[in-house]
Design a protein that fits this description.
203 residues, mainly beta, three-stranded parallel sheet
């Protein structure tokens, strides 16, 4: 009599091995829907299995890292920075070497620096209310060639001196020290020194 049906109860555990299963005979429908097969048991490229926490990968996933054509740019480490790339094809980027024109106001608020030391990397325009003797000093002069601006200086007879890199006329310090009121100082840097001029007391 030919066998027409074999029940699972007739098969002992561990008796069916891979060699007993014909190649390409198991289909997707033969696998239980909740079999929970680990992705580590699968071979070949995984293009995306959402149920296993893998997204659907785009074409960039297959590209090499680099800065050449058809490569993916990778940030450097510690600290993260973009590598040097050719940006000549970028659009919407304003060239800082070309002449510029503005239709709106360009301004920054004055930076309060009451100790008389002005950081040129901070702002262009400053205000200073001297509560005692101060020395007019500028920091970060290197790299500031051509930077100019104003200082609104309020004094009440306190002694005003200057650093060696602060250049004034022969009478300026005496005028500022003797005055009680507000002066406008203008300055410009040549990358080595900062040159100052002053107004009279503003009424």
């Amino acid at each position: 009599m030919a066998l027409t049906q074999i029940k699972s109860s007739n098969i002992a555990d561990g008796t069916v091995v891979a060699a007993d299963i014909a190649d390409d005979s198991i289909t997707n429908a033969d696998i239980k829907s909740d079999a929970a097969i680990a992705t580590t048991k699968l071979s070949g490229a995984l293009t995306g299995i959402a149920s296993h926490g893998l997204p659907t990968f785009g074409t960039a996933a297959a590209l090499a890292v680099g800065t050449g054509a058809s490569q993916v740019v990778q940030m450097t480490t510690a600290p993260a920075k973009l590598p040097a790339v050719d940006g000549s094809n970028l659009t919407g980027i304003v060239s800082l070497t070309a002449d510029q024109s503005w239709t709106g106001a360009q301004r920054s608020t004055m930076f309060a620096d009451n100790d008389g030391s002005f950081d040129l990397n901070e702002r262009n325009n400053f205000k200073c209310v001297a509560a005692g003797a101060i020395t007019l000093t500028f920091t970060n002069i290197a790299g500031s060639d051509g930077q100019s601006g104003y200082i609104l200086l309020t004094n009440a007879g306190h002694a005003i001196s200057k650093a060696g890199t602060t250049k004034t006329d022969a009478n300026m310090l005496a005028t500022l020290s003797a005055g009680t009121g507000t002066f406008i100082l203008s300055y410009i840097s040549n990358n080595t020194n900062v040159y100052l001029t002053n107004s009279a007391i503003m009424e």
